[in-house]
Amino acid sequence: MAIFNDFLRDRRRDELSSEDLQALEASVHAVQNVPARHSLAISKQPIGVSTYLIEGFICRYMDDREGVRQLVAVHVAGDFVDLHGYPLKRLDHDVATLGPCRIALVRHEAIDQLVRDRPNLTKLLWFSTLLDAAMHREWIFRLGRLDAVARVGHFFCEIEAKLRAVELSDGRQFSCPLTQADIGEACGMTSVHINRMLKELRERGLMHMQRGRVTILDLPALRRLSEFDPSYLFIGE
Amino acid sequence: MAIFNDFLRDRRRDELSSEDLQALEASVHAVQNVPARHSLAISKQPIGVSTYLIEGFICRYMDDREGVRQLVAVHVAGDFVDLHGYPLKRLDHDVATLGPCRIALVRHEAIDQLVRDRPNLTKLLWFSTLLDAAMHREWIFRLGRLDAVARVGHFFCEIEAKLRAVELSDGRQFSCPLTQADIGEACGMTSVHINRMLKELRERGLMHMQRGRVTILDLPALRRLSEFDPSYLFIGE
DNA sequence: CGACGGATTGATCTGCGTCAAATCTCGTGG
DNA sequence: CCACGAGATTTGACGCAGATCAATCCGTCG
C-alpha cells in the first residue's frame, strides 16, 4: 500500500522496522480525498479515529469569542494530524483542510493493538505527537517574542523545513495553498499586516509568494531575520 | 513511597492500576530538593532522565536572540515536567525552577521497561505529555487572540485550575511564587504592563496578587473576561 | 540602617490594528 | 469569448494598545 511512505521521513524512520511499518499500514481502515476548506473534526466530540495526512495541507485551530480563528498547527504530507486524539479521547480544537487533501483513517482500537504488541512503534508514535508539541512551543515563542516581519519569516521557515523533509521543497520553491488571511490566523496578525510584511520580505530580497507558490530567495538571511533554528523539528536525526 | 500521589490527580488517575503505580514508584532513582531560580535542564543536550515535580513551581522557556525569555510552560505539583524528553531524547528548550522545589528523577531505561511491560501505563504517560501539548495550544491562543488584560486573566485561570486539581487552590486563594516579570515572560508582555493589568484586574474586583499569594475574587467573571474554558485541562474526566 | 530586588506610576513613542477603497484573479455561465 | 461576481491582494489614512524610558516607592534581609 505504501500509505506511510512519508511518516517520520528524515527523522527516526530508520527506527521503524518493516514489521512495524506493515502493522501500521494494516491498521488503516480507509483512505479518502477531501476538498479544500473542509472540516475534519470538531472540538470536544469524543473521537475514535485518527487522521494521517498523505497529501495536502491541514490546519488545527481554535476560535475566540467572536469566532476569529487562531491556527495552532499546520500539517503537511507525512504528518499524523490528530494522533494525539488517541490518548486524549477527544480534541480540544478543530481540524480542517486548507487545500485539497488525501488522508488515511486509523481506528483507535487498531492503535490499541499496536500499543499492546509493539513497544518500539509505540515510542515512535508517541515521538511523532511530541514533535507537534515542540512545534507548538516554537509557535508560542514566535507569537511572544518576534515582531511582525520575523513572525511571518519564521512561519515560512518552518513550512519550508517540514516540506523539505518529505521532498516537497528543494529549499527554493514549494507550493503552499494558504491565503494571506490564513497566515494571519497562524501568526496572530491581520491579513492587512501580513500583506505589508510579505511586501517587506519581497523588497528585502528574502522571499515572495504568489498564487500558492512560495519562492525563498535567501534562506540563510530569512532564518537569521526570523531567529529560526530548525533543531526543534528533529530533522536528520 | 507515595511520590506520585498527585500524578494525573483528578484526571485519569482511576485508570492507573495499583500495580502500574507501584511500577512507576519503583522506577524513581532519586528525590531532590532544588532551590528557587535554579536551572534543571538545558536545551539540545541529550538527556537520560526525566523530572517529576513533587512540590513547587517549575517553568520551561526559550530565549530570543537578546536573551529575553519566553516561557512555554509552567508546572505545578503532580506534573511530569519533561517526560517528553524520553521519546525525544533531547529537549528543545530550557527548564528551571521558579520557587524552591522537590523533584523525583526517573531514568529513561526505567521508562523503557514500563513501555515494554505496561501498555496501559504507557498510554497514561503518553496522555500526560499530551496534556502539556493541549496547554501549549491554549498558550498560542492566548498570545495570538487575547488582549493584555485577558492574557493575564487567562494565565491565572489556568494556574488556578491546575492547582485546584491537586488541592493547592480552593478556588479563591493559592500561593504562587512568580514575579510580575515572570508573568510577563509567560504572556509575551513587559513587566510594566503586567503591573498595569494586575491593577486593572484588582480595580475590577476580579483578583489580586501580593507577596506570592493570589486571591481570586470573582472566578466566573475572570473566566468570562479571559475566554477561559478549562476543558483542555481534562480535569474531572 | 542601608541595600537590593520587586512593584508602581507617569510621559512619550511606535508597531500594528482598523477602516475603507481600489485592483487583481479566477471560476462560471451566457 | 467576454461579462460578471466573489474572493484575494494591495495600498493609504488614522488611532490606540502596549512598549520604552525613567523615577519613585516598598518590603525584606544582612
Structure report:
The structure is a homodimer of 237-residue chains. Chain A has 237 residues and is α+β, with helices and mostly antiparallel strands. Chain A folds into two domains: 13-138, Jelly Rolls, CATH 2.60.120; 147-233, Winged helix-like DNA-binding domain superfamily/Winged helix DNA-binding domain (Arc Repressor Mutant, subunit A, Orthogonal Bundle), CATH 1.10.10.10. The first copy, chain A, has eight helices and ten strands. In chain A, the strands form three sheets. In chain A, strands 2-6-4-5 form a four-stranded antiparallel β-sheet. A three-stranded antiparallel β-sheet of chain A has the order 1-7-3. Chain A has a three-stranded antiparallel β-sheet with strand order 8-10-9. In chain A, a hairpin with a 2-residue loop joins strand 9 and strand 10. The longest helix of chain A has 27 residues, at 119-145. Chain A starts with 17 loop residues before the first helix and ends in a 12-residue tail after the last helix. The mean pLDDT of chain A is 96. The A-B interface holds A 44, 60, 62, 64-65, 68, 70, 72-73, 84, 87-89, 92-93, 115-116, 119, 122-124, 126-127, 129-130, 132-134, 136-141, 143-146, 187-188, 227, 231-232, 234 and B 44, 60, 62, 64-65, 68, 70, 72-73, 84, 87-88, 92-93, 115-116, 119, 122-124, 126-127, 129-130, 132-134, 136-141, 143-146, 187-188, 227, 231-232, 234, 237. Chain B binds a DNA duplex (30 and 30 nucleotides) through residues 147-148, 179-181, 189-193, 195-196, 198-199, 210-211.
